[in-house]
Amino acid sequence: MSQLNYRDRIKVVFFDIDETLIVKDRDYLPATVKPAICQLKANGIIPAIATGRAPCSFPPQIKELVAETGIDLLVTMNGQYVSYRGEALAKHPIAAEKIQQVIDFLEQHHIEYAFVSNHAIAVSQITPIVRSAMDPLRTDYHVDKDFFKTHDVFQILPFYDASKDELIANSGILDGLKTVRWHPHSVDLFEAEGSKARGILAAIRHLGFNIENVMAFGDGLNDVEMLSTVGVGVAMGNAHEELKKLADHVTEHVENDGIYRFLLQSELINENNEITGEC
Fold first, then answer.
1. How far is the C-alpha of 139 from the C-alpha of 97, rounded, in Å?
2. Which residues are catalytic?
3. Pick the residue with more confidence: 1 or 44?
């Protein structure tokens, strides 16, 4: 295995969640992930999360991983909310007036939707399509079309397939917003300037690091800006082909210990260190 020697350069490593840290549909977390994160911390490198998910929708295994390893730097909802040690560093809720415009159009075209806040998710209605997208994330969402009137909403999740992409693109509701498809029947809808990269930049400004000191792992189209911006962008072996093309490196599949293998290859962790999984 060739050595890349990033040990003296990298100070923070950001990990996407779904299909990067964990296989979502199987709820599978490779056994090497926790000890690798513990080794990063032991070597003075900060492990962090950068995800499209809200903190309230982290999978149980990821919540456990965060708690047990002490991960306290979180870029969530595609960079719309950034926190460090429980304190918000940056947050970008969608204006209520804009939300109203969006949902008026969605309801006109019989498209269901969800509101995503930091602590809860509310949906317009529970249907089979909504369940197919939402249940793998969390099942304790509730129906509340007025949720946005009393809570900060950082993302809207309209539930439609690719056949309606052109309708949405030409509707005018995307002025100041953008969509990123995360499911065959749903997209993330959030600020046009929003991205994991924006969240990471806010985080490292607070920490006093340079973007060249940052490594990030991802697999999906919402990782494009992140991997294009950080000093070292790593695509998983199971990543979208477009992401692989722009990444600095492509590692193994998530199920083949892709994170551990690349951290080892880049000398951020050491194979000779005892791997106990204890931080």
1. 28
2. 16
3. 44
